[in-house]
Amino acid sequence: MRLLVTLLTVAIVVVACKNSKTPVQTHDELVQHIDSSVRPGEDFFMFANGRWFAQNPIPASERSNGIFRTINDTINATILQICQTAAGSTNDKGSLKQKIGDYYSSGMDTMGIDKAGIAPLQEYFSEIDQMKTFDDVMKVAAHIHRISASPLFAFYVNSDDMISSKNAVFLAQGGLGLPDRDYYFNTDERTKKVREAYPEHLKKMFELSGFDEKKAKDAAADVYAVEFALAKVSRKMEDLRDPFKNYNKTSVKELQEKMNNVPMNEFFHGLGMNLPDTVIVGQPEFFTYLNIATRQFGIEVWKNYLRWHLLRGLAPYLNTEIEKQNFSFYGTLLNGVKEQRPRWKRVVEDTDGQLGELVGQIYVEQYLPKGTKEKLMEIGNAVKEVYRKRIAGLDWMSDVTKAKAIAKLDAMIMKVGYPDKWKDMSALEVDKTSYAGNVIRANAWHFDYMKNKYGKPVDRTEWSMTPQTYNAYYNPSNNEIVVPACNITVPGYEKTLADDAILYSIIGGSTFGHEFTHGFDDQGSKYDQFGNLNNWWTSEDSIRFYAKTGAVVNQYSHYLVVDSLYINGDMTQGENIADIGGIAMGLEAFKQTKQFKENQVIAGLNPMQRFFLGYAYAWMVNMRPEALATRVLTDVHSPAKFRVIGPLVNMPEFYSTFGIKTGDKIFLPESERVHIW
Ligand SMILES: [Zn+2]
After folding, report:
1. 676 Cα–ligand 1 center, Å
2. Whole-model pTM above 0.85?
3. What is the pLDDT of residues 474-490, one digit of tens each?
4. Ligand 1 center–CA 518 separation, angstroms
5. What is the rounded distance in angstroms from the CA atom of residue 321 to the CA atom of residue 118?
6. How many CB atoms lie within 10 A of CB 53?
7. DSSP 8-state assignment for residue 347
8. How many whole angstroms from 473 Cα to the centroid of ligand 1?
9. Which CATH architecture has domain 157-317?
10. How far apart are CA 200 and CA 221, in angstroms?
11. In the prediction, which pLDDT does 191 show?
12. Where does the chain hold its CATH 3.40.390.10 domain(s)?
């Protein structure tokens, strides 16, 4: 992929510089991406990126193409090198390289994997077959939670939203095989097609696991009946956004009394855990129904249900037939991907997914460009400083709330680059003999790591992403933003850093600014500076804030994505608020740079033009319609096009920079524009 981009860049016409002081550019990423047949006011996203999309069609093995794929290809090539070097050397048993090398080798051993077939699951299948009562169902469900998917409901240990220093046990709705509850009910054509194909997929998977046709068909019907019933009592994604409404602390004793048919003690024992005193239940009505479901469905139905979820979670790591059938449903039907990615890529991503803490140690030591952490910190601090000033200057917020908002911002922890200490994975055994065996043990390791947090204080130094993950996050309970090292990467600027317009839009706006704003979006704003769920707003300020977030919901709800599917403005509001705030902060911070102050023109583009085109570059993603449709139903982020247009049409500087006026397609009347932060 990098090679392809390099070849294309050579052929690009040099754009004359308007400013004689700036050096002549031989090529410029931003200029090359522009499709000048599209007017900015018509579709700024296509104006900025259309030429790149035309020259780089989506490969048959991908759901999308663009900046993320380009960057992830570069990262994958590095991890492949780490894996191959480890696999090709003699390593001490238990060493970091032995684990990486053997895990990767076991994944590449397709002959061994095919020969084993479903043998790696046999002991779990027998356990399921031997179940007699719902006590057994709970115990076996717990085992499946540890090693594969999560049947019945979701379980996790995380910091208590109300007491952020303490870890708590959470129980939430879950147990579905389709990506979201809406798939069981929506009536649009695409969703209907997926829903109708699902029982056939279930049947084929049961056949591949050893059932005859009749038995497989019945088992598929059983699974569908259970999941449909669970989906019916599941909340919609937008109803999961309010942290207060999805926080219901209860003593286990009380829970047990209410759910007298669901022996939670068997579940906890199955996890290898003592019964906790209290749990936080996300959606009580879901568990009320589960208590009824235990009587509604017989033991044979539960056997089929558990068998499916065990198989579903491990399907990508089993023999070719199972893996292909799994891909045809979740890859092709749900995302429009025509063919599987090359095996090495899948195995590299899985190795990184499971052993990322080990891979990261080598990545940081051998592959990270010097000065990465410093440059990221410089941009992050600049954005934070801008944020402080903007909060102080807000015209809609009282001084009382402002002081608390600034205190929260000041307290916000910035984890940048990579962790100071790595997770200890010495208890995890990896060998070359069985890929599924490695996956099962690694899943169990990660599960136990999470589970064992219960009863211990929250470790505020922990990272939930590795340095080689091209992403970032805000964690409200810890009031922290985490920006992994590889976020410094901008394709086309591997040798020298990109100019500040690009760095401040991509890293300043869509990364740091975006994550800081999550601390003040519809959810993050409900947590205080200590990470506790706690309303710190005056009621007048709350009302004014929700009028503004309501305007964001309204703006995005009008964007049509594909066919008849519009953005779900409620579900995506947190991300949209973060995008709108992020780019505003990025721009303010950019205005402090030399490039902006001296009005440096690069490749014919002035600083403002470069900044906004750079922002469109941050979300240069072209996605298949199937994948877009899946995303609209399941992803809290808006599709890439609207992550660009949505925030920009709220910014006066954007209109003046590109001469966008009333009557242009993307023009948003001033009365509808939103300025929150
Ligand atoms: Zn976000």
Report:
1. 16
2. yes
3. 999 999 999 999 999 99
4. 7
5. 11
6. 18
7. H
8. 7
9. Orthogonal Bundle (1.10)
10. 10
11. 94
12. 370-423+455-672
